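Consider the tokenized backbone below.
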């Protein structure tokens, strides 16, 4: 079994080297695909020196968004299992073994890492972000007939064959409700696993905002009602 770790990167010069060290230290056979979405803070220059036999670097020539970066990474993935890893240290790579276990056990096709059903630690931050996440998850669940607790989680894991049957259309954070709607339509076996979460403040570099929430709402309706 080989794991493909797809890492979308945009302006993460302060965290990318530490994150890559943590991913590499996980004792699982893997390839790492770093997709830089036209960073302008020096991240791009750092990434060009990180490629090796197990790490590939893809450079976008213009900023297109997380969904577009994942689309580029998924096309290059060759592992049996594909996991999305954000570059900002909010999600802990040491949790890969429990995230992929339902797939290895033959029980799941897709695994979501939930920040809301966990006995693990999580940083206490923004109340209204939590409300927004739960509202979007609730609305998505109504239309997909799933009972997820964290549709917007950054930790999503797939058997590679699942991704080969899905075309990602959204370029930005609308990827999350889009992929959820499309896997729900395929009647795949979806599991959730509780994860830890060390969220960032905006001062520390958090990028998602209220406009992305509006976009997520649009995508929930678009990919569940208009397809």
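A designed sequence for it:
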């Amino acid at each position: 079994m080989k794991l493909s770790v797809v890492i979308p990167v945009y302006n993460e010069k302060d965290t990318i080297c530490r994150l890559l060290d943590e991913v590499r230290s996980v004792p699982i056979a893997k390839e790492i695909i770093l997709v830089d979405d036209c960073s302008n803070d020096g991240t791009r220059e750092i990434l060009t020196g990180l490629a090796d036999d197990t790490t590939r670097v893809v450079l976008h020539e213009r900023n297109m968004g997380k969904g577009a970066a994942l689309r580029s990474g998924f096309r290059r993935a060759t592992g049996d299992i594909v996991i999305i890893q954000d570059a900002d240290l909010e999600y802990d790579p040491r949790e890969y073994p429990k995230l992929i276990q339902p797939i290895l056990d033959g029980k799941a096709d897709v695994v979501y890492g939930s920040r809301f059903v966990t006995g693990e630690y999580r940083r206490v931050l923004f109340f209204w972000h939590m409300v927004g996440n739960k509202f979007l998850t609730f609305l998505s669940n109504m239309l997909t007939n799933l009972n997820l607790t964290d549709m917007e989680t950054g930790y999503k894991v797939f058997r590679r064959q699942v991704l080969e049957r899905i075309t990602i259309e959204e370029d930005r954070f609308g990827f999350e409700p889009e992929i959820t709607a499309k896997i729900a339509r395929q009647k795949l076996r979806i599991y959730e696993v509780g994860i830890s979460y060390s969220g960032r403040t905006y001062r520390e570099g958090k990028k998602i905002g209220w406009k992305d929430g509006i976009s997520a709402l649009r995508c929930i309706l678009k990919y569940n009602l208009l397809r």
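The chain has eight helices and seven strands.
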